[in-house]
Amino acid sequence: MNTKILLKYAEEALNKPILAEVIRKSSAEINILHAEINARKGEILVGVEGPPAEIEKIIKLFEKKGVEVEKLEHIVALDRDICTDCGACVSLCPTGALSITEDYSVKLDEDKCILCEVCVPACPVRAIKVKRP
Amino acid sequence: MQRIWLNDVEAYTGVAAVDAYIGATQLSETRGMDYGGSHVIEDLVRGKEVKIRATAYGTDCYPRKEIETTITINDINQAVLCNPRNAYQRYSAATNSRDETIYTYMGTLLPNYGNVTFSGAGVLSPLYKDPNYETIGVGTRIFLGGAQGYIAWEGTQHNPGKALGTIMVIGDLKEMNSRYLRGCIIDRYGTSLYVGLGIPIPILNERIARTAAVSEDQIKTQLLDYGVPRRDRPALRDVTYAELRSGKIEVKGKEVPVSPLSSFKVAREIAEKLKKWIEKGEFYLSSPVELLPRDTQFKPMKQVIGAPLVKDVMTKPAITAAPEDRITRAAKLLAERAFNHLPIVDKQGKLLGIVTSWDLAVALGTGKRKLSEIMTKKVVVASEDEPVDSAARKLEQHNISGLPVIDADRLVKGILTSEDISRLIGRRAR
To answer: Which residues of B are catalytic?
Structure first.
């Protein structure tokens, strides 16, 4: 399972290699999806591979280092009531999170989504929504 | 009334005193591309309230000059859907050779052949199934937006000779269903209407049996490069709808993901529904009252003033420099010859980068010496056969004032600057 986690760094945590330390300690498979760091604070959105117990352990490690952690669930959604199953989105998706099934429906696999949001404005009926925290 | 807006989308009133025609691609005056005539049509079908604003010059017959009100589809006596161009027999598939994303009527096209899009229902495209127009003609009863409608005429740009036939359709909007009539937005292009449409094809003879049985691996189209901003876009390869439907095709030796732009799922649903209607005796097949033309041709618009190409306007030859040339020498050159854009080329004359007078001004006092240290490597370029309008759009979009003009081998053939374009406009005005 892939869990999306938002790491919020306070100013004093910015110059420490926390991500590296956590990876070394846990051998977690962490994929950085988005990062925004300025002089006052930093935010890194990561996708972590592993079972729920493993994820909790990794979250604890980050928290111990003074990083605020927010687990993000269901932040991307394909609204089935709006979607026409046209498929305009599928070739834009870099990870195959959007695909066409055997019965010609469009399917969104939240696990594979890296929140790049290329599909959001490209959907002709605006059926894909991303709620960022 | 002389002018009318429905939810701030203007409709055409030059039809008759209180009639209006709203176009699917007309944009909202307040919401731009997020809402258009197609969305007004969908909102009406959904029974939603629509805001009306109209103005008139006032006559003895109709003295009132202004009205503002709201209506639903039930408040108006008639609501007719009349689409002048529908159900393209097939259409070309699209991809993009440029190194930037482009936003086209074929959807978002990623850089460097990053994806392919195609349109049309392929094996369920009615006009492809009766390409001789034996059963499909004026008056043919059809499934239209969830109701029963009719073919009114050939569609605009009807081009059956190239298997690009279209039809004009008409039906009662009041009976339609938003499942089969949806407003849509093509990102940064505009709004349009998804129209659910189905045509029954009676198998009257062997020929119709044969054409109606065509499968998707027999329906060919061309993959066009929409990255080339010309009307005659180059074809990269032939491709069948079966290949397109598989979700991946090969372009330039690379496997590329493919998107359909219309719902095959809904197309199947419509075919199934139409079949049920016919079986239950709720829908009667009709023979056309008049056949559609099979020999019309589609020509581009005649232009009295030829659209100038980049090569007609550009400055040539362009003065260029080598990457190892000194910044000071370049500054002197620009000052003496009074120009602002210096393409940097290799020994063969191939474009490597660009340095502008602005870059030189910024470089002063930094201690940098060679042009290679300050040149911009990602250069926005034009080609000789590109229309000037397309090049002007690039200048505007990238907020720059000059484009090196290169050929297929990246050899610099000239330079197009905003001054060249100003001169052209000056000539036109005279």
So the answer is: 61
Domain boundary among B40, B61, B77: B77
CB < 8 Å from A in window 168-227 of B: 182-188, 192, 194
Backbone torsions φ then ψ of B219, nearest 5 degrees: -95, 110
Alpha carbon of B366 to those of B20, B309, B330, B374, B404: distances in Å? 65, 40, 16, 10, 26
Which of A72, A98, A118 is the endpoint of a domain? Answer: A72
The contacts of residue B154 (CB under 8 Å, 6+ apart) are B165, B166, B167, B168, B292, B293, B296
Range of the domain at A112: 76-130
Give me the domain span that covers residue B270.
81-291
- Beta strands of B235-361 (E only): which ranges? 235-240, 248-251, 254-260, 290-291, 341-345, 351-356
ipTM: 0.88
Chain B: nearest CA to A100, how far in angstroms? 8
What is the number of domains present in chain B?
A: 3
CB A100 to CB B261 under 8 A?
no
Residue-wise pLDDT for A19-71, tens only, equals 999 999 888 889 999 899 888 889 999 999 889 899 999 999 999 999 999 98
Query: Can you read off the two tokens belonging to residue B255?
Result: 């496997």
Instruction: Supply the pLDDT for residue B190.
Output: 97
Q: What is the pLDDT of residue B179?
A: 96
pLDDT attached to residue B112: 95
Examine the fold and report which residue of B77, B108, B143 is the final residue of a domain before the chain moves on.
B77
Q: Does residue B112 sit in the same domain as residue B55?
A: no
Please tell me whether residues B277 and B359 are part of one structural domain.
Answer: no
pTM: 0.83
The answer on pLDDT for B430 being more than 60 is: no
Between B306 and B25, name the one with better pLDDT: B25
